[in-house]
Amino acid sequence: MKKYLLYIACLLGTLVSCKKSLNEQPQGVLASDQLNTPVNVEKMVVAAYSSLGNENLHTSNSLWPWGSMRSGDAYKGGDGVGDNSEWNDYETFVTNQNTNSLTDQMWAQIYNGIARVNNALLRVNTIAPADYPLKTARQGEMRFLRGNYYFMAKILWNRVPFIDENVPTTDYIKISNVALTSDQLWDKIAADFRFAVNTLPATQTDKGRPTKYTAQAYLAKTLLYQAYKQDDNHSVTGIDQAKLNQVITLCDSVINFSGYALAADFANNFLAATENGPESVFAIQYSKNDGTQFGRIDMGHSLTYPMNPEYGCCWQHIPSQDLVNNFKTDNNGLPMFTGYNNTDATKVSDFLNQTFDPRLDHTVGIPGHPFKYVPTFVYQTSWARAPAIYGFFTSMKDDAAANDPSFQKIPPFMSSSKNWELIRFADVLLWKAEALIELNRPLEALPLINMVRQRAANSTARLKQADGSFISNYKVGVYQPGVNCVWTQDYARQAMHKERRLEFAMEGNRFFDLVRWGIADTYLNSYFTSESTKRTYLKTAKFTKGRDEYLPVPLNQINYSKGLYKQNPGF
């Protein structure tokens, strides 16, 4: 971002030099303060929102390249390890360096979003409330958006420079990424969400704008992450009980608000026809037929479609065999904490001869199964691009059916205008459950986890073949202490960890959960040992404790800062 700021500074300098020789104001040029009108500021607020959808092919704001592909949920996919090799570096960890161009692009993308927010805020702040009745609400919305962007940066890099609207652009170069401690940075992010909680209305006419309850949910998420204290080696040294209690209070406020509930069918969260439903707490709003050539579609997932003629490119973000096996259930319909990898489910018969959680077929495209709820649109092995390397599965949540009104081709790529959920009501339920379990109140967490499981059990209506038979053999039970489980704190913690994986698989959350819980190294290295027997390219993969929990600060950014930014450990 700084190179662009430098360019703008040079441009402004050129304009000042011209003014020395020209006493007249150039025609068609507005001074900066002339933009500070309610009409123009509203446009800048919209521009700040648009940054949520300003992704490109490789920098998805869903964070799947960093949250799914580095977690054991997904392989890179594509034509082989050299296709978008930067993603292969992420997935295998050992070759990931501070020169990875996609890391630099993501840094710039996030800080461009922050810059738009700060520019809008700076101008909103100058207008009197009498002239701009929406002033307070817009301040809350912009603080919320800034909190979102900084949250993303925090979980990606850990230590980043914090710049708000009060910092002159000339001082950006003076702010280090280690000026704040990790805790202080969390406090800054939390402060933006707290401001939003105190200023936003309970409801909004425009579905894409955050509300008081949206901000409470995001604040709960922030405090939950902050509660897990990490040392310099990124080991979890303790969990802040006071913050966990705050998480519970905030989640309760969202849960008790009548506007939110679990969607009746899990599928509703991933279809354009049912978007902005009761489970949607905060979503990126995409569009088509909006006056632009192709619409503001979800370019962040445009490489995830399979290779059949209806789509055609590029088969990235491929569910792992480990993830598919994780959806198996035992005789009671409960998840299998161990033993799920003893045999691999790959063929149609495998999914009929064992029992599975229905969320499998909402998440994974499987050969012989209908794709995206269209019984006559059956996924074929030929749709896979490099099955010898990555197997035959494909991602489902990201994509839209080829006949769906939201689907849009941008040859040779494609995507859709369906929303992408950043926070779902199921998140809120499981965040509260997590806080309760870590406070050693597991029985209070039980009904929350069971609510999510019961909804999964009820989500089979769309999962049928053309003849009306179910795609897979589904069996989901709820946890019943003393009947099918012993609900101790440790067991409840395993159940919660498993539930988050099943519920949010392929949504870009998993890696950050593993880091928060302090188990990324042991979990991923165990995964590599097992999965590399099936995917040989993973034989050299290794997660290094104390380094790989966070991305390296891009070398370009360190150079732009003239060495002010400090590199993360191990890079």
TrEMBL record:
Pfam families: SusD-like_3 (PF14322), SusD_RagB (PF07980). Residues 83-223 form the SusD-like N-terminal domain. The keyword Signal applies. Gene3D superfamilies: 1.25.40.390. It comes from the Bacteria. Residues 278-571 form the RagB/SusD domain. Its main location: membrane. Keywords: Cell outer membrane, Membrane, Signal. It is found in: Cell outer membrane. Belongs to the SusD family. This is RagB/SusD family nutrient uptake outer membrane protein. The lineage of its organism: Bacteria, Pseudomonadati, Bacteroidota, Sphingobacteriia, Sphingobacteriales.
